[in-house]
């Protein structure tokens, strides 16, 4: 558990469709107010654990977990890696509740808080990322790759949560239709290698949202 | 047998970690430990034996996650695993006095409204486990974080076995569970439900527990259990930071709080139990001073009835056209807004009455209780005359509510009070009976006495009885006003119970009602009224309670009064602003109040529908066009729609007061499809459609196809919007459209959602694909032929 001190507003504005343009003052006031409420409601938590990898003809085995990673995207992503960090993060069901309350009373705030919360969970993942970097300082890491990216099955979220004991440790569960609950949550993996990894662009090619992504439509990228 | 242990033992020792022991013997991360009871029962029995040898009086069966959700796909049923696990535990306990506890943890899914597990789902999972484990000596629910899930579990245990029940929840450093449950809310609710011991386990190490136990003992008289982790885990190796001797030393510090039952959770082993036993050998249990207080709770927080607390009366259709309309069209958001508004205005508790002959009151009560609890943290008062509606509300309610109400009639006493007892609620007792409301204070006092005696006989405590001496209308029965107040005073002094009173009735038929209400409220407070039922949105009423608290020396140093009124300027002091704003400007700039004001002014000279068609819609269109061009962004679009709502509210009121016909440009169903709980997109569409004048039947999220079909048929609706955010739920969208077609519902559908494409929408048979909320308005206009 750690305290989020501020939220990346420009990222939230990007989610709201502001392509670099500045919102009107009224919207900025609401944004500031929503940020305050969100910071009060959010309890940021993350969890991670490192495992060795074993490559075989059926995919990549995460040793000691019963997880087998399959598909082209993950093979490319973990190429050259000997181990992997499984991680998950959440900003708690208090945030879902806040957004729900706004949805009943003030949709503007609901939409803005939703965007801020999406920015916030990314920040929490960045903090986890930094800690993982500090913990394994002399090795090379891939960027975060989540179930559902490319052809890596979304169902894997269930296994990640089970292996990390996520419900008990940070209160993160999976609902029907493989929805993470609390909803502002992430599961991901980071490949680790002793040797320098080839530069891989975190691009749109392998993204499941490619066809409908609003950033792509606007000629932008999400990362 | 458990009660014998409680009575005879100085301390009771539970066992330590099972998972920890299994991991030490090679269990892999993510493997299902409970299956070892079948594949390797000797290993499990051995671990139990080690704990018994270390001194455990009670061992937990290896069944923590043996529910049909977690075992799904394992090839085993809860019945098989639990039977095997109890056999393992019994084998270990054979020849000793050790008791076997059926150990049950959370199901693994989050409860509504945070998640998608309903109360009935949770109840059924636990019922299955409890029935399978009836050979145990007691039932333990541990590592719980959601009070509503735990309530379902406790009810499942009470209704399907006679075993004693122990509950432990898991708190974080902020003294709350992951879902926000406070220690007080847990203790008050569970003690009400009639469990046998309460406490905390897991999460924190023993060094972090003193402040938590210190708080817990203030809220309960039940025996206290502690079963902490061995300190904090290292996420990488899953090893824990505290050893057996330090663990025992830390536990020692908890003894002065009156802890009775001790064990260990993650990271603890038989050595931890042995060290703790050694430490306890020369210690005495410290008896606690009993606590007594009147309180009700939500899932998160406790409201102590130790001073006047305001019960908000607005969630009630009596005499309210718009509220009735909302109930009929299933407009839950309207009801939620009424709730949130009252809480912001100062309500401590909300009365919930959704009785209307035309609707299914039971289903509505369940929906409203759940929805309100999803957006506010104040306790609720369940207000109905129907026992089955009452019980349905009590079951799903998260926390300890108030029941409104029982009265002196035999039938009422014999149906309502047992429910109050079973669900651990507080109850409002009305001083009337078969003969009506007695005229005199003495008559009402006598009925109050009868109610109190009946309740006490059933085991309902005095602190949970709130008597209502009934307000009569001063204009009709002027002499009755003082009778009410005198009865209130006597009831409070002589029966020692709390008092409650609906205030607003007093002024019915009189001019300047607010003045009469406020004065009566002041008189009643002075006589000892604890729970005024008022409209908290009327500042004079809420203010009277605040001022009373100040003058009665309850609000110490006037802190609350000053913080409420420090920046207060009397309403009359601010000069009325003449509205230079027109409707168009107000909508374009998202100014709701100004938009409403401009509409009110315009209504003096213009027909309502002309305002809608000539001012409102064009203004919204202008904003919509900007949105399409990319010069106006989503938040502004919604603000404009919200401002338009200000206009519509005014117009609706005008129309309902004159002709009784609400303004509507057409009826539309909106639903987020089955399996999907992301409904923000659907709600944006709703705001826009409503403020273009359409009547929206919002079915909410996770909506089964059958419900859409049924609503369309019953309400004669021909335009249906479906939303899905996830690739995994697009399938449900397809199924919904398919069912609409199969059932020959004469309708067109419009669909939207993040992962949806035009091609896919056409493939599944939708009529309109809407890439954003604005396009759904375009679709509606096209459909309704404008």
Question: How does this model look, in words?
Answer:
The complex is a heterodimer of chains A (223) and B (786). Chain A has one domain: NADH Oxidase (3-Layer(aba) Sandwich), CATH 3.40.109.40. Chain A is of the alpha+beta class. Helices cover 40% and strands 19% of the residues of chain A. The model of chain A has no long low-confidence stretch (mean pLDDT 89). In chain A, a hairpin with a 2-residue loop joins β1 and β2. The radius of gyration of chain A is 18 Å and the shape is globular. Chain B is α/β, with parallel strands linked by helices and 786 residues long. Chain B folds into 4 domains: 279 residues, Homocysteine-binding-like domain (TIM Barrel, Alpha-Beta Barrel); 265 residues, TIM Barrel, CATH 3.20.20.20; 87 residues, Methionine synthase domain (Methyltransferase, Methionine Synthase (B12-binding Domains), Chain A, domain 1, Orthogonal Bundle); 123 residues, Rossmann fold. Chain B starts with a helix and ends with a helix. In chain B, strands 1-8-7-6-5-4-3-2 form an 8-stranded parallel beta sheet. In chain B, strands 11-12-13-14-15-16-17-18 form an 8-stranded parallel β-barrel, surrounded by 7 helices. A 5-stranded parallel beta sheet of chain B has the order 20-19-21-22-23, sandwiched between helices. About 1% of the residues of chain B have low confidence. Chain B contains 30 helices and 23 strands. The interface between A and B is large, with 65 and 64 residues.
List the helices and strands and how they pair.
The complex is a heterodimer of chains A (223) and B (786).
Chain A: H1 9-15, H2 25-41, E1 45-56, E2 59-62, E3 67-69, H3 72-77, E4 83-90, H4 93-105, H5 107-135, E5 140-141, H6 156-164, H7 166-170, E6 173-174, E7 180-181, E8 185-193, H8 214-217
Antiparallel strand pairs in A: 1-2, 1-4, 2-3, 4-8, 5-8, 6-7
Helix pairs in contact in A: 1-5, 2-5, 4-5
Chain B: H1 2-8, E1 12-13, H2 19-24, H3 36-39, H4 41-54, E2 58-60, H5 78-93, E3 99-104, H6 119-132, E4 138-144, H7 147-160, E5 165-169, H8 183-193, E6 197-201, H9 210-219, E7 224-227, H10 244-252, E8 261-262, H11 270-280, E9 295-297, E10 302-304, E11 311-315, H12 321-328, H13 332-345, E12 349-352, H14 361-375, E13 380-383, H15 387-396, E14 402-407, H16 410-422, E15 426-430, H17 441-457, E16 465-468, H18 480-495, E17 498-502, H19 513-527, E18 531-534, H20 539-551, H21 559-565, H22 583-588, H23 592-603, H24 608-629, H25 634-658, E19 667-672, H26 680-691, E20 695-698, H27 705-715, E21 719-723, H28 730-742, E22 748-752, H29 758-763, E23 768-769, H30 773-784
Parallel strand pairs in B: 1-8, 2-3, 3-4, 4-5, 5-6, 6-7, 7-8, 11-12, 11-18, 12-13, 13-14, 14-15, 15-16, 16-17, 17-18, 19-20, 19-21, 21-22, 22-23
Antiparallel strand pairs in B: 9-10
Helix pairs in contact in B: 4-5, 4-11, 5-6, 6-7, 7-8, 8-9, 10-11, 13-14, 14-15, 17-18, 19-20, 23-25, 24-25, 25-26, 26-30, 27-28
